[in-house]
Each structure stands twice: as C-alpha cells, then as structure tokens.
C-alpha cells in the first residue's frame, strides 16, 4: 500500500495566499465514498446521544445558479420534480424519526438551494410535514435561507407564524455590476424590497451575506456594500471571500480556452486580504462582534444561547433531503455529491425513486476514527471564537489536545494563537488565516480522498 502524502508544514502554507479552502465542515463531502456495506439507520443512531440533535432539511432548488455556487442545487426544476421531492422529504423524515426512537431536536434549519424557492402552498406543506412528526419550529431556534427574488410578504408571514426566527439572505453585493460579474441577475431594488418584506414580519435575526474578491471590486466598493447592509441593521453579517471552484459557472468560464478570465491573482496582487481587513474593521467600528473569519454579530442580536442547548462539536445532525449531510460522532453520511447540472439532476432523479426501505439504510459517507474525530473537534472549535476549550476536549476524549494534535503547538510561536490553561484561541492574525489553518488540520487520508475525488 502506498504511503499517504505528507501534509505541508504550517510555515510553508503561510508563504502561500491565505485563501486555501473554507473548512465549514469536516470532512468535506468530497471525502465521502460508498460504505463497505449498507448500514441500518436505526443501528447507526442506536448508541448515540439523541437528546440534542440538529434537524436540517435541504431544498435543492433555485431560481438560477450563481456563478460561484458549488452547493447541491438545481436551477429551475420542473414543477413535477418539486412536488415529488416534497413527498420524498415527508417519507424520509418519517423514516428518520422512527429510526431515532427517543430523541429531542434542539435546532432546525431549512437550507439549500433556496427554501424560499417553494411557493406559499409548498412551504405550508413542508411545515405541515414537520408538525405531523411533532417537530415544532417554535420550540427551538429555527432558521431558513432565502434569496431576494423569492421573498414576498405572504411567504415570510407563513414562515414567521410557523416558528422561523432567523432569515439568512445572500446578497453578495449591493453593486449591480458586481452582482452581474457573479452571474447573478438580482438588482439592488429587489434586495431592498426583500429586506423590507422580511423586516415587516419582525424576525428576531436577519443575516446578510456579502462576498469580496469579485472581479472589478475594490476595497472602496466592498465597504460601500457593507455600509449599505449596515443601513438595515442586520443582526448578523457574513463576509465571504470568493472562491472559483471547478464545475461552477465561474469555474467553467475561467477554464474556457485555457484563459483565467475570472482567476483571482496570486499575492501580493490579490486584494481579498486587504478587503477582509477593511471589512472587519468597519464592522468592529459599527459595534459588531467577530465570531469567525466570516461571521459578525450585532450588539442587538438575540442571545446566542437561546433555546435548548446544542454543541456542534458534540451533538449530532439529521439531514433530510437529497444532498443533506447527517453526522453521528463516528459516521458522516449523505447522498452522493455533485456540482454540474447533469450530475445534480442524475442524483436527484435517483433520490426521487427511493423507497422508505431505502431511506432506512445508509450506504455513502465517511467513518471517523478517533484521530478524525479529534481533528473535526479542533477545526470546529479553533476557527471560531472564543476558541478550543481545552477542558471540554479533556472531558470528551480523556486526553490533552496538544498531546493528540502536537501540530497545534506551532500556532503560538507564529503569533497565530494564544493559550491559557482553559483555552487555545486564535489571535486576530490567526483568524485572518482561518482558510489556511483549516486545510492544515485535515488528515492525510482526508486530503488524499479529496484530491482523488472526481467532480461530476
């Protein structure tokens, strides 16, 4: 058996541009493979703590596919496919809840895709499915993703009445020219209309997403978008660096004729780091607290600990729908992953043919041994503030974090983290390098799987 490739040193990574990869979940679904054999869903969850679970429903439909998007979603599906999908969602939800046995959901999220792509009747059908399974969105923090062109007053009133308390909307930029560069047809007046419809329903939390690194964007124009967003006093703001990934719209344009038309220039000409610092400073000056490299929370946002206790490092997730990820401590699973329209359509078509018996089995995912569980815990903790709780690590694993992952000791001498007896926390410089540190912490096995993944 060939040895796995050695991971690059932190020093060598720090000589590269800071934007290597976004480690929003570990391991990434490109590391998933067919399991050695199907496993019964009931058995997968039998030994797990099911007292505080995250329930996630995936709606893989959009009005259009943005040029940067590599999520599992299909633009402009047929009306028949949407209706069949909602039926499958109901079936899968029933099967999953039956397999869990005694359990409690502590968080609920509707993501995609674009959940608000559904019309009012379809959204009502979705919430009815939840209520029939005794899932009450009003009893826990419940969020939903929307896009400006799919928002209207009736939908937002329905969602608020159903218990949704957090709306997240991707705007990306308030500049129409910059949005067009992202292959996104929205206009600023459409965004402002959507925000007004959301605010009219008094959702406790409105999150707005912005992107930096767009071709033609400047620090000044990025700050102008931030200022436009601040005018609406969102409870949360996310600042995302642009990544141009294979099989996305921008990725295909970049590779056409071999000319990097949308490729971001390498340092020192890449302005993303400068935009990040300027955006961060503007939000801190406006009274926002930085939670991660991307997330900023306003002083007037609801308390983050509202609702039943949930910890993403310790508690499990049940993902319902094609493309949804589920995880226990030792197994992450989902349907296959695709980006191109052809692959997403094929995977979705297969999903629509599944039976209740099929949903009761798991056959595609990634099994996490002790080392992988520790790496996941470190990535999920360290890349957000307040940081990696060393006592919580000790309670979870019965070991010391720096003994288990000696590479963490390299952070302090480089000024990327500070350590006390209780906490290992990134410094501001370390947080600016989050998209370097995440890839640095992945295992050689996961890195090899991701490198070997063949995009569909």
UniProtKB/TrEMBL annotation:
CDD domains, A to Z: Radical_SAM (cd01335)
Segments forming domain Radical SAM core: 47-286
Name recorded for this polypeptide: STM4012 family radical SAM protein
Organism whose genome encodes this protein: Lysobacter hankyongensis
Entry-linked NCBIfam families: PRK08208.1
InterPro entries documented for this protein: Coproporphyrinogen-III_oxidase, Elp3/MiaA/NifB-like_rSAM, rSAM, rSAM_horseshoe, rSAM_sf
């Amino acid at each position: 058996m060939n040895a796995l490739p050695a991971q690059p040193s932190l020093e060598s990574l720090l000589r590269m541009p800071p934007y290597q990869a976004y480690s929003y979940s570990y391991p990434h679904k490109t590391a998933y493979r067919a399991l050695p054999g199907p496993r019964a869903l009931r058995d997968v969850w039998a030994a797990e703590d099911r007292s505080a679970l995250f329930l996630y429903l995936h709606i893989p439909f959009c009005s259009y596919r943005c040029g940067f998007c590599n999520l599992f979603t299909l633009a402009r599906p047929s009306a028949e496919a949407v209706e069949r999908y909602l039926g499958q969602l109901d079936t899968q939800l029933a099967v999953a809840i039956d397999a869990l046995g005694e359990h409690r959901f502590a968080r609920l999220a509707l993501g995609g895709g674009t959940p608000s792509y559904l019309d009012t009747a379809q959204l009502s059908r979705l919430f009815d499915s939840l209520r029939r399974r005794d899932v009450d969105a009003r009893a826990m923090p419940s969020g939903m993703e929307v896009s400006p062109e799919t928002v209207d007053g009736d939908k937002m009133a329905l969602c608020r009445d159903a218990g949704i308390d957090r709306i997240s909307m991707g705007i990306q930029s308030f500049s129409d020219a910059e949005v067009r560069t992202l292959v996104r047809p929205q206009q600023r007046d459409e965004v402002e209309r959507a925000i007004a419809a959301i605010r009219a329903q008094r959702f406790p939390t409105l999150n707005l997403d912005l992107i930096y690194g767009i071709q033609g964007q400047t620090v000044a124009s990025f700050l102008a978008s931030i200022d436009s967003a601040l005018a609406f006093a969102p409870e949360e703001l996310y600042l995302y660096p642009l990544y141009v990934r294979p099989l996305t719209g921008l990725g295909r344009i970049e590779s056409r004729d071999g000319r990097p038309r949308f490729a971001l220039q390498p340092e020192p000409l890449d302005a993303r780091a400068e935009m990040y610092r300027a955006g961060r400073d503007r939000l801190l000056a406006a009274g926002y607290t930085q939670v991660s490299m991307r997330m900023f929370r306003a002083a007037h946002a609801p308390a983050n600990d509202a609702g039943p206790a949930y910890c993403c490092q310790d508690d499990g997730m049940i993902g319902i729908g094609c493309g949804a990820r589920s995880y226990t401590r030792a197994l992450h699973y989902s349907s296959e992953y695709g980006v191109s329209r052809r692959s997403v359509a094929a995977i979705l078509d297969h999903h629509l043919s599944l039976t209740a018996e099929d949903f009761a089995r798991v056959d595609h995912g990634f099994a996490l041994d002790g080392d992988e569980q520790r790496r996941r815990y470190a990535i999920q903790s360290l890349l957000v503030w307040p940081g990696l709780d060393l006592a919580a690590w000790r309670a979870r694993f019965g070991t010391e974090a720096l003994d288990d992952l000696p590479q963490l000791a390299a952070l302090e001498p480089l000024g990327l983290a500070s350590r006390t007896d209780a906490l290992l926390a990134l410094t501001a410089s370390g947080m600016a390098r989050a998209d370097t540190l995440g890839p640095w912490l992945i295992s050689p096995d996961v890195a090899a799987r991701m490198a070997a993944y063949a995009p569909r």
